[in-house]
Design a protein that fits this description.
- The protein has 5 helices and 10 strands, in the order H-E-H-E-E-H-H-E-E-E-E-H-E-E-E.
- With about 250 residues, the chain is an alpha+beta fold.
- The strands form 3 sheets. A 4-stranded antiparallel sheet has the order 5-10-7-8, with no helix packed on it. The chain has a 3-stranded antiparallel sheet with strand order 1-9-6. Strands 2-3-4 form a 3-stranded antiparallel sheet, with no helix packed on it.
- About 35% of the residues are buried.
- Bound molecules: 2-oxoglutaric acid.
- 2-oxoglutaric acid binds next to strand 6 and strand 10.
Length: about 250
């Protein structure tokens, strides 16, 4: 069977954006207060990116993509059914869904994302990569504290951001994203691991930096909402202790 690589298609293809917002970019623009908040704290959360029916399209695609036997999985840049280094927990992590599934492909043209990203970057938007994280109920693994840019230093100058979109309601109980506000002003930190010891980053922090981990910001989101963060903002997420799988 021929495998179709959607990354070669430079326009939206499917139904994700069909009934989406029309009209000028103005309606999607962040306020000056929101932009200022991002600059000061290194993140901006609670930004609606998807309607419920769009979330449903992506969730259906995800249920197929997560199958290790899915015949187009070879297009993923990385695919880990379980990246956790703790044998008792599971962290599904995969990069490159946009090459395989039309909804994840078309998401990149969603102006609720592109207009806001351009404002926060203060310039044009180029796509770097997507990634999926899923944690099963009760034994979902952690994502250890890290800066995204530690993984991206080969791309310069630093002009990146991450947009984290919830496909389930994201709560403290199910392991929502957590930020160390203001840490985007710290220098680049070395890689200390993504899916093992939550606190491995401690080994490379100063005493003053360590004290800031006493008050992380838990980013609780409704499904379809997003949080933007600066590439040097330290973030991570704890295990999923709820009764539901999360993405
Ligand atoms: O979903 C998570 O817990 C971590 C996600 C992450 O590291 C990121 O989006 O940069």
């Amino acid at each position: 069977m021929t495998i179709r690589d959607l990354s070669l298609q430079h326009k939206p293809l499917g139904k994700l954006l069909q009934r989406s917002d029309t009209g000028g970019a103005g309606q999607f623009q962040l306020s000056q207060e929101q932009i200022q908040f991002f600059r000061e704290h290194g993140y901006l959360s609670g930004v609606r990116i998807l309607h419920d029916d769009q979330v449903e399209i992506l969730r259906q695609e995800l249920s197929q993509l997560a199958d290790p036997l899915h015949n187009e999985n070879e297009l993923f840049y990385e695919f880990h059914s379980n990246e956790s280094s703790d044998p008792d927990t599971v962290l599904f992590h995969a990069l490159g869904a946009w090459r395989i599934a039309p909804g994840f492909h078309d998401l990149l043209w969603n102006r609720r994302f592109t207009v806001r990203a351009s404002q926060l970057l203060d310039g044009p938007v180029r796509f770097w990569h997507d990634q999926l994280f899923c944690k099963p109920a009760h034994h979902g693994g952690v994502v250890a504290w890290h800066q995204d840019y530690s993984y991206w230093t080969r791309t310069k100058p630093l002009a990146h951001l991450t947009c984290w979109i919830a496909l389930d309601d994201s709560t403290r109980e199910n392991g929502c994203l957590q930020y160390i506000a203001g840490s985007h002003r710290w220098p680049d930190l070395p890689i200390t691991g993504l899916a093992g010891d939550m606190d491995a980053i401690n080994a490379v922090l100063s005493q003053e930096q360590r004290t800031q981990f006493e008050s992380p910001v838990a980013v609780e989101l409704k499904k379809g909402e997003a949080s933007f963060h600066h590439p040097r903002l330290v973030h991570g997420s704890f295990a999923n202790h709820s009764n539901h799988n999360t993405a």
